[in-house]
Amino acid sequence: MTERKILLGNEAMAHGLLEAGCTLAASYPGTPASEIVGTLAAFKRSGTIAMHVEWSINEKVALETALASSYAGRRSAAAMKQVGLNVAADPFMSAAYTGVTGGLVVIVADDPGPHSSQTEQDTRQFAMFAKVPVLDPMSPAHARDLLLTAFDLSEDYQIPVLFRPTTRVCHARQDMPLRPFRQDAPLAQFEKDPARWAATPKFRFLLHKKLNEKLDAIGRDPRLQPVQLNPGASAEKGGGVIVASGAVCAHTAEVLKDLGLWQSIPLYDAPMPFPLSEDFLTGLLDNAPRILVLEETQPVMEAQFRDRAKVLGRLSGHVPREGELLPETVERIVRAFAGLPQAEASQGANAPGRRPTLCPGCAHRAAFFAIRKVFPRGIYPGDIGCYTLGLNLGAVDTVLCMGASISQAAGFYHAFRDSGQNSRPIVATIGDSTFYHAGIPALINAVIQGCRFVVVVLDNTTTAMTGHQPTPAEGRSLDGRTVPRVRIEDLARACGVRHVSVGDPYDFQAFTDLLKAAREHTRDPENGGMAVVIARRPCLMDRKQAQPARRPAPRINDKCQGCGFCITHFECPALVFHGKEEAVTVDDALCTGCGVCIHVCPHSAIEMAPQP
Amino acid sequence: MKQQIVISGLGGQGVLFVSKILGEAALARGLSVLMSETHGMAQRGGNVISHVKVMDRQGEKDQGDVAMDPAWQVSPLIRPGHAHVLLALHEEGVRAHGHFLSPDGALVCNRISPTGPGDVDATGIARKLGNLLAANLVLLGFAAASGVLFCSMDDLRQVLMRLGGPRRDANLAALEAGSAAAIGDA
Ligand code: SF4
Ligand code: SF4
Predict the structure, then answer these.
(1) Which of A211, A411, A602, B149 is the least buried, fewest Cβ under 10 Å from its Cβ?
(2) Is the pLDDT of residue A191 over 80?
């Protein structure tokens, strides 16, 4: 019997890539996609696979790298979260025209909800925009299998294939039999063909024509036609059929079975929601009295019906226009569609739940507290990472997209300076990984536009939020080779910043002094300009980095008045509030003994415990 | 569906580890599992939830049209009111996720001062063991010994033995302590 293993959706996709003989996988981490290449990276570190695996600097670089490898005839993949494709949009749109040689699959994970993203954008719509086929797996095991088809499709039609799992596939776990990895990769080969690989606009027109022809043929490809999951079912007179794709299809199947509708409502799964074949669409329109379309998060399949008079979905208002289609939502829609009474309104959560917060002892918290102290009237453009949670501390005013903290700080600077208000200090915060990803061009731009503000790079020497992927400061590739270290302080200086300092936010007083010096530099009329302060302290949760021994929790002395200042302004989860006038306590299960809170209490009520 | 379990806790409490053990226990029994978990932003100290669905294995089909396999036709999520068991690693989890529990489902809750039969001070027991981080396993042992899970204490012991690792013995001790608390209560 084959060995069965429980695999996370993202692990299953990593297996799928290996089973398909993929030779290169490049990615920038982002929830919910991170563990795809994370799994491959672990294989790579242990020396068990030949594939080239990389955490690229950003998604654009990842996609371009994978694309050229596929030009060389080798199966390749890039993986990212949905907003990562925005960053990689430029190469992606163009790659649809040039096409590929070796199979190229671009895995882009969507996050309906959203749970851990800035938008609920639907990558399947991106596929329509770029005119490439997109596959939408239902479950981890389905994703693994569908990846094999994705590579075949890509090679057969010489076109990049989008692969769009959602959070519920990426972060579901399922048991499945293990299968061998494919080992027979072809040698790299590159046929020069400038009319294709370096096409000028005239040739681009021809490529566009070809692309349209490919797409027509792909829509008819028998491997990816919608399938009826309940072949025994036939629509009752006046009844309807449901077309679904992705995890929503799994919710729908379960709901139909539970409600006793499995035999009376045909359910079609569309593994390739775009392009749908004209035959399928007209077939349904001709035969089904009503068609319910369930998909996340935008009306991609629904919009492909030319006549929508009997199509129910998001465009018709029968499906909510935003938010995740949870199984309970699907149940409500299906009941209405089938004319069943709604179930008793199931109680929602009785409490809003805790908001996320930085870990106890996280050095970002110390850095944010210091920033607020030195720049009390500041504007604080923030960025994407754990440190977005500086929001809770009032130290993050804007969050837009990767790298935007620095360019937005520049925009604020111009707005205030040009209207004659020089008084508002501006402090941008950006993580180390985000700085490498998209902060560098923004920093150069701020320098050459003559901006004067402070950039604090929160450097925990890892990509913490997504599971501690390495950064270019590590100086080691995934297969263990030593490569040059690329250091943030060198980059900042090379960007033209003349005031660059590095400090440890735990060393609270010294770090505050660094911020003050940076502030003075932005104000110096003679030699002043941009200032970069690097707040360096390893992430506490990163098992790969050397962590100092855990120190004992501090003590609360009798000066504590229960004012709650440390709770609202510092929000360390280890400090427990018991109401006004009650002394706070320290939860020793959570406290890491970082000791920063000692500097926070305005009444000096928190003090270091004596060393044992 | 054999059993649907919701595990609720705060980021860092080991919700994922508990669901992993339950999944392995199901696999060892020849059952199939489908689970969902929380990653990313919410893991940082927010309320974390895992859904675990345990069901009979749907054949050994690993070739052919995968979508047609009933194993793929199950939602990875549990609907509100459909969980047979709610394991709350933190009492706040009852407020945040209590609505998942079916009216005749079993609640097992880590509470400093237990108020009902499903309550146990798992953190207190873990502290006594000098292993605060193992409160999750204390709660799991308590649930297994109370008989509300699809699997037995023995299944869980074997999973922990197989997983091994430097924390194996400490984990086993926590599991046993939880079980003892349940039997002592009975
Ligand atoms: S994971 Fe690391 S960087 Fe993120 S909040 Fe926790 S300690 Fe801070
Ligand atoms: S020492 Fe203070 S700030 Fe640091 S983890 Fe403990 S309670 Fe939180």
Answers:
(1) A602
(2) yes
